[in-house]
Structure formats: C-alpha cells, structure tokens
C-alpha cells in the first residue's frame, strides 16, 4: 500500500489555507478581509475566497461535501443566509452546520470551513 501525497496550499508557520488528499480538499476557516462590511458583505467575501481556493484545487462549490459556518452573533443568521443562498448551486446545496461562536477577532462576523471533493 502506497501513501497518498498531501498537497498543501499557502503554508504558514501556524496553518495552511488548504490541504488536498485522496481526492478531497480541506479548507481552513475563511474570514472576511473588509471587516467594515455588514454580515451579508462579509459572508460574500468569505464565499469568494472559498471559490478561489476550490478553483486552485481543481474543484468548485458544486462539489462541497460539507460546510461549517461560525457566526459571532445569532442576529446575523438571516443576513448570512442571504449571501449563502445567492452563492450555493441549486441542486448542490451541501450539508451544513451553523453555530454561534466567539471568533478570533471581534471585527469578524463570520468564518466558514468547507470540505470538497476534487
């Protein structure tokens, strides 16, 4: 039995943005760059970052196996869903969990983690 290679993207001292192994892309939590945006804007930024990483892995949002969404404030659930529903591919909506969590930076309203088939 041979070991499958692990390809890592944007490797840093603390973490990588993505790892691909055995036909699956595992993304780190993606967060917004412009923290002045409202929840819908921050979510749209995060989803765009996810699109770019998935493209680098040779896959796309229609192949997401699961998504984990972390919200700083329960009141932002509807606004996050507005951006999410505009982004997901009809007929390919992935299993998803959404939790309220204290994020690493107080200005972040959302963080999203996805796993996708390559």
UniProtKB/TrEMBL annotation:
UniProt-listed Pfam families: Ribonuc_L-PSP
Family under the similarity heading: Belongs to the RutC family.
Protein's name in the database: Enamine deaminase RidA (YjgF/YER057c/UK114 family)
Protein source organism: Roseateles saccharophilus (Pseudomonas saccharophila)
UniProt lineage: Bacteria, Pseudomonadati, Pseudomonadota, Betaproteobacteria, Burkholderiales
């Amino acid at each position: 039995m041979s070991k499958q290679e692990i390809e890592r993207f944007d490797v840093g001292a603390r973490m990588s943005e993505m790892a691909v192994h055995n036909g699956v892309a595992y993304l780190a939590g993606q967060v917004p760059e412009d923290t002045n945006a409202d929840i819908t804007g921050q979510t749209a930024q995060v989803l765009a970052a996810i699109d770019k990483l998935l493209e680098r892995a040779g896959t796309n949002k229609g192949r997401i196996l699961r998504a984990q969404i972390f919200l700083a404030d329960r009141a932002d659930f509807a606004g996050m869903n507005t951006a999410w529903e505009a982004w997901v591919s009809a007929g390919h909506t992935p299993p998803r969990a959404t939790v309220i969590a204290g994020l690493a930076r107080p200005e972040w309203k959302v963080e999203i983690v996805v796993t996708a088939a390559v």
